[in-house]
Amino acid sequence: MVNVAFVGGNYVQRGRSIRGGVAVSDGTIVAVGDDALVREAAGPEAEIVDTSGRLLSAGFIDAHLHPAMGGREIGQCDLSEATSAEDAVRRIADYAAANPDLPWIEGGGWSMNHFDRGVPAKEMLDRVLPDRPVLLSNRDHHASWANSAALRLAGIDANTADPEDGRIERTETGDPQGTLHEGAATLVRRHAPTATVESLYQGLLRGQAAAARVGITGWQDALLHQSSADVDGIDAYRLALERGTLHSRVVGAIFWDRGRGLEQIEEILERSRKLGPEHDAWFRASAVKIIVDGVMESFTASVSRPYIDACGHETDNHGISFLDKEMLRAATAELDRRGLQVHFHALGDRAVTDALDAVEHARRTNPGSKARHLLAHLQVVQERDVPRFAQLGAVANLQPLWARHEPAMDELTIPFLPAGFAQRQYPFRDLLRSGARLAAGSDWPVSSMDPLDGIHVAVNRVAEHSPAGAEVFLPEQRIPLGVAWDAYTSGSAYVNGRENETGRLCVGYRADLVVLDRDPFAGDPLEIAETSVLSTWVDGRRVYTGR
Predict the structure, then answer these.
(1) 298 and 221, same structural domain?
(2) For residue 432, what are the contacts with CB-CB under 8 A and spacing of at least 6?
(3) Runs of H (alpha helix) within 141-221
(4) I need a labelling partner for 424 at 20 to 30 A (CA). Which of 76, 351, 489, 516 fits?
(5) pTM above 0.85, yes or no
(6) Using CB atoms within 10 A of its CB, is residue 230 exposed (0-12), middle (13-18) or buried (19+)?
(7) What is the CATH classification number for the domain harbouring 109?
(8) Average pLDDT for consecutive 10-residue bins of the chain (547 residues)?
């Protein structure tokens, strides 16, 4: 039996900071309150963790994370730290030189704002890799950058039609420019080497280690990888369970193949039962990921009014809806009937409306259902749709880090949005006031995994580590610190069906905890992002120790 007493500092309880600590015995919280009570409950042999001047919290839970995919990607050609287009190309060349035996150069993480119009050209890659195929996802994974060798191998030329679920960026002559949006990247990716279960497992370990460093003790894997009929992301978790290396509580979302119909539900159910209920304490695949639309920066997010061009003129582009409304409703209702949660990717206002309509149809069709459907991203939400979250019991899954001024927002998004849409972006406060249940996540590797960065932006609507006087992005949509904290803890625990065992510091709950180097509730809100993780604990065992 392992006993631990956290004493001397403050702890978080229901969105506020309280003086006192927590006692843990054999992985369970056995006392919460003043230090004397905690020491007595933990017993004389307990390890004492001094939290003086610090803060103890329930471990953060990320409601939208891609640990295996992101971890695999950072083990390939990682461009997430590139500072410019030139730096990205240099890193690609260096990676290729260091890996001369790789038949393809794969990876990703490039930033759209480093390139003219957000679309890098194939010639930039051709200069350093004229013969070896290259395919690199951008940071949000809704576009990919290919060189001429990869395009030739895929047979993509001026005569190649755009797929229904994507767009080939083209030069003035109609030739492929080098950027492939959404499903167009699949035309090339199908020729690249497929992932292996072992590579996904190693990626999962990298992702889990990164999560522990920022205090994350659980998550929803927002898209279980399945690159071929023989490789399933669930098997990466199976390996982790078999090898005893999974120390995070996870719900996995199985990808809905938008090229198929309801016949895939039986396969989804079979996959969801693949590991069996004996593993539920650590992993279960009880959710289904439906990607409804694309992203704003690529003009593929589904919007009710068309995007405008650089001259301010209305275009005929409403983005891409990956599923028609009837299929979306039918799929949601049937998944709901089978007891599966639907995790919608919905950025544009039309996508949000379509997803809420699908949830409403499922509620009418299956009035006894308790499924906790959630909509992620929510970049633009029309005022009429805000109250529908609470009315339908749909969770608003926020990615707070995006609600700020940055080049992707100011240069690639706002100038091209229909009139009035810029003011409807990431309406966190409106959703809160309407009674919507809030959860939060990062969408890593799209953006920083650090919950404290996300909480900082949710509270301040300015980027983390911003200089004094930085312009606030839609300040009326700021939310209180306690609300943002709960979204990253108890809100996400609710999403994963674990609200009675994780997400709060309560007697009888699992001892999934994080110790921070300061108490953000007692400091300047503009310094939230300066907070660091000192240690992360799962089941009362330390899984990360900071410096």
Answers:
(1) yes
(2) 438, 479, 483
(3) 148-154, 186-189, 197-213
(4) 489
(5) yes
(6) exposed
(7) 3.10.310.70
(8) 93 95 98 97 96 97 96 92 95 96 93 91 95 92 93 94 92 94 91 90 97 98 76 94 98 95 96 94 97 95 96 95 97 98 98 98 96 98 98 98 95 95 98 98 96 98 92 98 98 98 98 98 96 98 93
